[in-house]
Amino acid sequence: MEIQPRNGGRIDLGIGRPDLALLPFKELREAAERYFSLGDVTCLQYAPLAGAPSLRESLADFLTRHYQSRVTPEHLFLTAGASHGLDLVSGQVAKPGGTVLVEAPTYFLAFKVFHSRNLRVVSVPTDSEGLDVVALENLLEVERPVFLYTIPTHHNPMGATLSIERRVKLIELANKYEFFIVADEVYQLLNYFGQAPPRLAAFDHNRVISLGSFSKILSPGVRLGWIETAPELFSKLGQCGVLQSGGGVSPFTSAMIESALALGLQDTYLERVRNVYGQRCAHMTQVLDSVLPSSVNFVHPTGGFFVWLELPESVDSNLLLAEAHDANIGFRPGTLFSPDREFKNFLRLCFAYYNEAELEWACEQLGRLLTRYL
Ligand SMILES: Cc1ncc(COP(=O)(O)O)c(C=O)c1O
């Protein structure tokens, strides 16, 4: 298909963000108009450490409906997004020099958070179903982590979702070896095909610190998310100096989102992006199935943003990237997702940022490139 790459530049399938054209400008304007018509000034004041109580209430209601499992406001601590939640836990629950376990591969920017908090990062193997709990159990014979960081549903970059059996085993190990599970569940509500297993916090509130975010279900620019965990942990989280000085995060934005929730705009927006991303996911994987050489493998994702391609062992996707740029396309090389620079013969593609025609064009280019290269 002949299309003009957006802005005349390349189509970078490595970009892991929502499409600007889909972001909820209209919805947030409506939410703000409603809020200002109410004449309530509380959002212009400092908020309690765990965040605006009324948003925690309406968020608990929203999550209960969408997770189809009860969430209470007492278990929600508002954050400025999942990244902030991760930093808060890394700074308040762990101590410098402490060990954290991560999946190999994992979300690459999580390393930056762990390193800036002087934590020691140790990788745990995965397979096509996510975290390898048997390998984890073996590792726990020698390592004493403060927490394990995992992306259990629609993993970034792998797209994998951890089965219920593995979730149960993981909780059992966390209880036996006494570590926290920091579950990054930002893609939990972006399920397109079939049903995702319940979020990890539904299995155990005492061991699981679940990170959620409005970034993927509404807008990254609002910088608002939440931690769902046992309220006993809140005093630890609230010892963070920034929160003590500035109060709970973003009361003003919280009020706009609370208003969007009250108007049902978050519900309808979530349904809309789920449909659009689901169609993009199905289209991209269908095109990849038809254009990729048979030596390239991938697992079809059922949600989230990403497809993780496995190339033959001999290929280095970092070297392939220069040729991809010549063909006006891009991707994220696999080594980015490992502190030990493993996964050199893997690459990550995202289907959320571009429309179907752009995805099709870029995947066809990639197919041609790989057919030539391999
Ligand atoms: C697994 C994962 N965690 C966290 C984030 C960042 O989330 P937030 O914008 O809420 O900080 C991303 C964004 O790409 C992500 O993929």
Give the strand tally: 13
Radius of gyration: 21 Å
Low-confidence stretches: none
Domain count: the total is 2
Shape descriptor reads: globular
List SSEs in N-to-C order: EHHEHEHEEHEHEEEHHHHEHEEEH
N-to-C span: 23 Å
CATH class call of the largest domain: Alpha Beta
Q: What about the largest sheet?
A: 8 strands, mixed
CATH architecture of the largest domain: 3-Layer(aba) Sandwich
Percentage beta strand: 5-15%
Strand order of the largest sheet: 2-9-8-7-6-3-4-5
CATH fold name of the largest domain: Aspartate Aminotransferase, domain 2
Unique bound compounds: pyridoxal-5'-phosphate
Kindly report the average pLDDT value. Answer: 96
Class computed from helices, strands and strand pairing: alpha/beta
Total count of helical runs of at least 4 residues: 12
* CATH homolog superfamily of the largest domain: Type I PLP-dependent aspartate aminotransferase-like (Major domain)
Classify the helix fraction into a percent range.
Answer: 25-40%
